[in-house]
């Protein structure tokens, strides 16, 4: 297997993982401190890398063009396929709702800064959604061209933010401990969502021709790159703004404002704002395109014009954002439930069944049945945490 293909696959996994969920990490970690969030991040990275390797094990038993739905149908039957489809739809809508809720407010502020025209939060949300919807409905090629430019700018802005914030880190801020034990559990679903990349695994399997060694290398390294970047991001955000300030001013806009105010440099303030905008926009473009294509394939040809599909794609999450303008963290928490189904429970059930049905596997993830069951237990904790937040038992974040 060529090194360039492995490197490309590694970067695809890293790029898929790093998105707007990164902006939620300091908000989710505000009440638990840096050291506790670090432990949670390392654990969740290991969990997601392990279940991704389980998907590699499963792909041995299917055609090279197999998707998650194909695998679920082959191993679990129609019920498995419908469960995978429902979870995929739930995940896409939850992420789109989160990105519209976060990006709409940001967009309104940018319009006011650049043009002097004041916009209400609702107007900013509608206009932001309409612009992205237009790009997606026009076609994938347009999304590709726009996304390449935005992704490059995002990397430059992210590097600038990390470099400029680093000298302002205060060690005492990083030593903050959880102010409430319930916040530790409540932070898990949002942090978990930041490590999702499993939707790209079938494409990587095809690209690397199912070569197990190359796939393992791409998955482990590709998922570790975001972990390293997230650690630095947590260092320069939780280390620049005190825990009390983060807790008093929750929300994405408040976080950006606090970082800008603390550093007191106009150039870095602009870089922070640009990075947040681009992170939301690139993630929203990618996820909404995935949802648009998914719905386009699912809807009957009679009703599947691109405009109709676009309305079905964007109106529900926009409605959520209009009713819950501060719902960025809330929507990411709900996305964790769907991601747990897709990235944990489905692989666990399929692996257990496949190991009984197929005895000629060339590759099997280390850890045996105990490792698989440990993943299932972790998935139960993640879903339970979000359900307890919804029920009001655990404190809500953001």
UniProtKB/TrEMBL annotation:
Lineage top rank: taxon: Bacteria
Transmembrane segments: 12-32, 38-56, 82-102, 122-143, 155-176, 182-205, 217-236, 268-295, 307-325, 331-352, 372-397
Keywords: Amino-acid transport, Cell inner membrane, Cell membrane, Membrane, Transmembrane, Transmembrane helix, Transport
Membrane topology summary: Multi-pass membrane protein
Keyword Cell inner membrane: yes
Subcellular location: Cell inner membrane
Location, primary (coarse class): membrane
Function (record text): Involved in transporting aromatic amino acids across the cytoplasmic membrane.
Protein family per UniProt: Belongs to the amino acid/polyamine transporter 2 family. Mtr/TnaB/TyrP permease subfamily.
Protein name per UniProt: Aromatic amino acid permease
């Amino acid at each position: 297997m060529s090194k360039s293909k492995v490197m490309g696959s590694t970067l695809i996994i890293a790029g898929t993982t790093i998105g707007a969920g990164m902006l939620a990490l300091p908000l989710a970690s505000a009440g638990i401190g840096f050291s506790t969030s670090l432990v949670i991040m390392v654990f969740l990275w290991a969990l997601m890398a392990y279940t991704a390797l389980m998907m590699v094990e499963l792909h041995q038993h299917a055609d090279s063009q197999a998707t998650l739905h194909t695998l679920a149908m082959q191993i679990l039957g129609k019920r498995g396929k419908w469960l995978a489809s429902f979870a995929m739809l739930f995940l896409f809508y939850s992420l789109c709702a989160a990105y519209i809720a976060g990006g709409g407010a940001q967009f309104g502020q940018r319009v006011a800064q650049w043009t002097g025209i004041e916009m209400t939060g609702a107007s900013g949300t509608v206009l932001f959604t309409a612009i992205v919807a237009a790009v997606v409905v026009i076609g994938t090629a347009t999304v590709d061209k726009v996304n390449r430019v935005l992704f490059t700018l995002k990397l430059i802005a992210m590097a600038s933010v990390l470099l400029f914030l680093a000298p302002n880190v205060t060690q005492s801020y990083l030593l903050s401990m959880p102010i409430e034990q319930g916040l530790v559990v409540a932070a898990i679903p949002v942090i978990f969502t930041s490590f999702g990349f499993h939707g790209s695994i079938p494409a990587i399997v095809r690209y690397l021709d199912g070569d197990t060694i190359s796939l393992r290398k791409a998955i482990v390294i590709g998922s570790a790159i975001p972990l390293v970047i997230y650690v630095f991001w947590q260092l320069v955000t939780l280390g620049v703004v005190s825990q009390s300030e983060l807790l008093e001013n929750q929300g994405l806009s408040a976080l950006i404002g606090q970082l800008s105010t603390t550093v007191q440099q106009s150039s870095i303030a602009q870089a922070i704002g640009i990075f947040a905008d681009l992170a939301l926009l690139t993630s929203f473009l990618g996820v909404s395109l995935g949802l648009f294509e998914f719905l386009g394939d699912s809807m009957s040809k009679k009703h599947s014009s691109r405009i109709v599909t676009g309305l079905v794609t964007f109106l529900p999450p926009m409605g959520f954002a209009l009713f819950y303008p501060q719902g960025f963290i809330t929507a990411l928490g709900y996305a964790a439930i769907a991601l747990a189904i897709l990235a944990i429970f489905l692989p666990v059930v399929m692996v257990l069944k496949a190991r009984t049905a197929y005895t000629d596997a060339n590759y099997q993830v280390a850890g045996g049945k105990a490792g698989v069951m440990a993943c299932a237990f972790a998935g139960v904790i993640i879903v339970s945490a979000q359900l307890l937040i919804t029920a009001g038992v655990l404190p809500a974040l953001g």
